[in-house]
């Protein structure tokens, strides 16, 4: 179990699947974590979630330290170990948005990943990440075309921030 000022980041256990499925089924969260149409994901989707958590180099269930209430999940997956290139994802239930929890968890996970996994780059779309590219009108969302932004942070950029 790892902690920040206000959060607990702990290893995934089988009993977390119901909370993670609830997170993925939230109509405000789903468009942020999937390019598919918003749809109700049934119990079979737990297999996909299980595989995702098991495949992650670093996977954490995020809880509020004060109450241990489930908030969301954060993951770093290294698909190309030779290149030390990781992909980061995080999602929180909407009731926890706009309180700095996502930023707090993201900073911790990024720091942890650079320090302990020896990564050279991590990809995502915020928090010190640099714009690397734009795939125009790539996703249909909310009855309009949206661009996909590709962003990343390199180890030397992270080193300069710390």
Structure, explained:
- The chain has 162 residues and is of the alpha+beta class.
- It has one domain (2-120): Aminopeptidase (3-Layer(aba) Sandwich), CATH 3.40.630.
- Helices cover 30% and strands 36% of the residues.
- The protein has helices spanning 17-25, 30-33, 45-55, 101-117, 155-161; strands spanning 2-3, 7-10, 58-64, 70-80, 85-92, 121-123, 130-141, 144-154.
- An eight-stranded mixed β-sheet has the order 1-2-3-4-5-6-8-7, with helices on both faces.
- α1 packs across α3 (45-55).
- It is globular.
Could you say what the CATH architecture is?
3-Layer(aba) Sandwich
Q: Which class of secondary structure composition applies to the elements?
A: alpha+beta
In the predicted model, the low-confidence regions spanning at least 5 consecutive residues are none
How far is the N terminus from the C terminus? Answer: 23 Å
Q: How much of the polypeptide forms β-strand, as a percent range?
A: 35-45%
Separate helix tally: 5
Sequence of strands across the biggest β-sheet: 1-2-3-4-5-6-8-7
Summarize this, please?
With 162 residues, this protein is α+β, with helices and mostly antiparallel strands. It has helices at residues 17-25, 30-33, 45-55, 101-117, 155-161, and strands spanning 2-3, 7-10, 58-64, 70-80, 85-92, 121-123, 130-141, 144-154. Helix content is 30%, strand content 36%.
């Amino acid at each position: 179990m790892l902690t920040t000022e206000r959060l607990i980041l702990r290893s995934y256990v089988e009993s977390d699947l119901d909370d993670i499925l609830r997170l993925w089924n939230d109509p405000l969260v789903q468009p942020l974590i999937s390019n598919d149409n918003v749809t109700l994901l049934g119990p079979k989707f737990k297999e996909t979630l299980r595989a995702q958590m098991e495949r992650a180099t670093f996977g954490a269930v995020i809880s509020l330290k004060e109450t241990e209430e489930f908030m969301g999940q954060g993951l770093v997956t290294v698909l190309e170990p030779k290149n030390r290139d990781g992909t980061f994802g995080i999602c929180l239930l909407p009731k926890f948005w706009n309180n700095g929890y996502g930023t707090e968890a993201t900073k911790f996970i990024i720091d942890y990943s650079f320090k302990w996994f020896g990564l050279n780059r991590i990809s995502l779309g915020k928090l010190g990440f640099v714009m690397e590219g734009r795939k125009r009108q790539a996703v249909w969302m909310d009855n309009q075309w949206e661009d996909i932004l590709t962003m990343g942070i390199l180890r030397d950029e992270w080193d300069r921030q710390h």
